[in-house]
Each structure stands twice: as C-alpha cells, then as structure tokens.
Amino acid sequence: MPSRSRTRIFLVAALALLAAGASWWMMLRSRGIDCNEQAPLTVLATLSAFLISVCFRLMGRYPDRRSRWILLGCLLIAAATIFTNFRFVRHYRGFCEDLRQQMHQTPR
Q1: Comparing C-alpha atoms, which of 84, 98, 13 is closest to residue 44?
Q2: How far apart are the C-alpha atoms of 45 and 23, rounded to whole Å?
Q3: First-to-last CA distance in the chain?
Q4: What is the pLDDT of residues 8-67, one digit of tens each?
Q5: CB-count exposure of residue 12 (10 Å: 0-12, 13-18, 19+)
Q6: pTM of the predicted model, to two decimals?
Q7: Is 43 helix (H, G, I), strand (E, B) or coil?
Q8: 40-71: buried (b, 16+ CB within 10 Å) or exposed (e) per residue?
Q9: Rounded to an integer, what distance in angstroms lies between the CA atom of residue 87 and that of residue 44?
Q10: CATH architecture, range 3-104
Q11: How is the chain split into domains, by residue range?
C-alpha cells in the first residue's frame, strides 16, 4: 500500500474514532437530560454519515484486503455512531420540545 493511500485511510479512521469518541463523551457526561446536547450530537451524526460515504469511495479506490478491512471497521464505527446519536436525540426530543414550549409561553 503506497504512503498516500495509507495516509488517507488512517485519516478517515482517525476521524471516525474522533466522532465516535466525542459522541460517547457527550452522552456519558450528561448525567441528566441536557437539551443543549442534541445539536452537537446531530452534527457528529452528520459527520459520521459523510465518513461512511468516504469509506465506500475509498473501498472502490483501494482494492487490497488490508485497506478494505480498515475501511470496513471505520464504516462500522461511523454507523454505530449514527445509530447511538439518533437514539439518544430521539429519546429526549419530545421532552425537550415540551420544555421549550413551556419556557416560551407568554403568561396570561
């Protein structure tokens, strides 16, 4: 595997691990329901979706087994990140919307 392709693949791997780690850290540190965490988790899920598309593109470009296994691992990490972020945001979305509506209601 040439050096340039190795750099690209490991950059994608680093970004996938960074996005997964940041998501995990944000979900873990919020002991209660923090409605402010939903937007950053959505951004990290979007980054993971982008990384999935990059993984598929690189799989077509680098046919050797080692590259494909690394990219498959990155793809699975990014997919797990999207799935867990979606579940977390969806779980608390209703509560946060109700809370926002209560805060923005005008007193009569």
Answers
A1: 84
A2: 8
A3: 70
A4: 899 999 999 999 999 998 888 766 666 766 778 888 999 999 999 999 999 998 888 998
A5: buried
A6: 0.79
A7: helix
A8: ebeebbebbeebbebbeebbeebeeeebbebb
A9: 13
A10: Up-down Bundle (1.20)
A11: 3-104
